[in-house]
Amino acid sequence: MDLGIKDDAFLRGKVPMTKEEIRILTLVKAQIASDAVVYDIGAGTGSLSIEAARLAPQGHVYAIEKNLEGISLIAENAKRFSVENITVVEGTAPGALEGLPALDTALIGGSGRQLADILDIVGERLHPNGRIVANAITMQTVAACLDYFHSHADRYTYEAIQVQISRLERVGPYDMAKALNPIYIITAERK
Predict the structure, then answer these.
(1) Which Pfam families match (predicted)?
(2) How many Cβ atoms sit within 10 Å of the Cβ of residue 188?
(3) What is the pLDDT of residue 124?
């Protein structure tokens, strides 16, 4: 299955959405197998959930989202892209993770200041060689991720990249680069 559904193909509303280029990099870092169980924590519109579900047709994606509009959009986008291997879980992590099965991959786009608690629960359920990929826009989240994985170096190997995407935008007869917010992608693999 190809990666990189165009942003405008998703129903979005006013809910945050991981942009196409960041989705592609996130999913490449996640290395999702065809039978993977995936948690998408802070799923927003479900753009990552949809693409993960397409990569894991024999697996299952649990899209965790607290925003009611986001919950509706995830369901609508799943129908739009004909993916049936998604379960939308309404609630805030870590509480919303209760009762979910062991996993192969966790995608974290929002943690509601509960990152360490979320990582503790995910880590307990993550299969060996499973991956956690966190997207962060604030330095506090980057620091919290790196501190967590550094203090759990006996359980994880990790890396981080910073990505700055600019898109060309037509301005009269010219093309101008318009920058998107820089994103940090932190990837950890369970030993």
Answers:
(1) Methyltransf_31
(2) 28
(3) 97
